[in-house]
Specification:
The protein has 136 residues and is mainly alpha-helical. The protein has one domain (2-112). The protein has helices spanning 2-38, 40-43, 60-65, 67-78, 92-120. The structure holds heme C (HEC).
Length: 136
């Protein structure tokens, strides 16, 4: 029984790790190039238009540390506010890849938080408490 549990824990860990690796690879191969091509002209560390520096995001880990910024990125790209109308636009396929990746990554960040929130909530608590911000 105990051995079985260890087996389950190990495979869950491996599953989590490989999911992270897939998402990381996708970011490097597909998402980051889109960011560079369509966003960094204005949202580089030096330009920082709209007070938004997207150049700082060079890995999945960095993205996960700032879900608030990426929620805004998701909203702006989904509503076609960004990139601005007079700038080069992503193809339909690129847009889909970008939005799906950001959405999946935000969901992944939100899941453990929701679990924490539920546990910290009293039994008869009806109103959801505000999400707990990550320590970083
Ligand atoms: C030609 C310059 C330019 C490009 C290219 C551009 N942006 Fe912007 N962006 C701006 C400016 C200027 C603002 C601030 C004013 C505004 O909201 O229109 C802004 C605002 C934003 C905001 C809102 C910031 C906030 O506080 O919520 C987000 C999110 C954003 N951009 C994401 C992106 C993403 C993602 C891309 C690439 C897909 C992109 N932008 C491409 C110029 C640009």
């Amino acid at each position: 029984m105990f051995i079985r549990l260890i087996g389950v824990a190990v495979s869950l860990f491996l599953l989590g790790t490989s999911a992270h690796l897939v998402a990381e690879e996708e970011f490097r191969a597909a998402v980051h190039p889109l960011l560079r091509r369509f966003c960094l002209e204005c949202h580089s560390t030096s330009e920082k238009q709209g007070e938004l520096d997207l150049e700082q995001f060079d890995s999945l880990t960095r993205v996960k540390q700032h879900p608030g910024i990426w929620q805004r990125v998701l909203d702006q790209v989904r509503s076609r506010e960004m990139p601005p109308k007079d700038r080069p636009q992503m193809s339909a396929q690129q847009r889909r890849t970008f939005l799906q990746w950001v959405e999946a990554t935000l969901n992944e960040v939100a899941l453990p938080k929701r679990a924490t929130r539920d546990r910290s909530c009293c039994a008869d608590c009806q109103t959801p408490t505000t999400p707990i911000r990550s320590a970083t």
